[in-house]
Automatic annotation (TrEMBL):
PROSITE patterns: HTH_ARAC_FAMILY_1, HTH_ARAC_FAMILY_2. Residues 220-321 form the HTH araC/xylS-type domain. Pfam families: HTH_18. The lineage of its organism: Bacteria, Bacillati, Actinomycetota, Actinomycetes, Micromonosporales. Keywords: DNA-binding, Transcription, Transcription regulation. It comes from the Bacteria. InterPro entries: AraC_XylS_family_regulators (IPR050204), Homeodomain-like_sf (IPR009057), HTH_AraC (IPR018060), HTH_AraC-typ_CS (IPR018062). SUPFAM superfamilies: Homeodomain-like (SSF46689). This is Helix-turn-helix transcriptional regulator.
Amino acid sequence: MDANTPHRSQFSTTDPDEAQDFINRMYAARPPKAGRLDKTSPVAISQVSAGGLSYVDFTMPPDLTLHLDGTDDLAVTTLLAGATHAELGPNIERYRPGDSFLGSFPQGDYLVRCYDFRAGILTVPASALDQVTASLPDQPRRPLRFASLRPVSPAAAAQWQRAAQYTRTLLEDDLSAASPLIIGSAARLLAATALAVFPNSVLADPTIADSRDAHPETLRRAVAFIDENAHRDISVADIAGAAFVTARAVQLAFRRHLNMTPLDHLRHVRLARAHADLLAADPATTTVGQIAARWGFPSHSRFTAAYQRTYGVTPSTTLRQR
């Protein structure tokens, strides 16, 4: 199956061996030897995934202890019902419905106890984490480690919830979920949000060299790369690599010389490409939504507003003129 094709699946079982095998395979989790499942231990999931992103509605057995191993991907759990607590060495963190906390993550290794547990789990692919951490200022690379499974503050928790809800909306919409530009951007948004929300080891301050490298030649190389690759799922890290500078330097170059960010410029280029496609499209076989999704615009209303600010008419007007 194409990685960009949305995939939906459901699974449920009361067979203890099948349930345990499923938990082991999907979540790098294993019950301790004394925690074998039995016939009263149902497992049920409903999953939607696209481009490495996934959202799972997961119902666990009534009382189960799991040993979670570290994974390259990052999973964040939002408790929907029941209760759970995590044991990280001598520390115990307890969660109630509505709380969000880290599930599996790089270097993760801890015990979690679940009671009548139902949760929504968003998984962010390792590739998105790599792209976001590569966008940070140059410095000795440090392993990604988290100091706590909890968000750093209630405001940070709310920030994660907003990003998670936005991502779920994209995954539930077939047109958005099938767009690699939209899903790639959403994956990086979630990865960046997770690094901002959960205390970790990789964030650091900008360097002096970044300011020195933010010159017009850097901007020229970055703009050329964007123009040539706007149809691809590219990140700030990709743009910086093409300009031979750090991500912070390329961001400073765009701010200093164009008063915008690299991603602002990328959106302007994609809007122009969408405009060209609308002019060339046959309204009998093509919709505005299809063209907007092709160029990475998941929200019809925001696309229409941005298009009208730039071209003075709605995109549907341009399409009908054809």
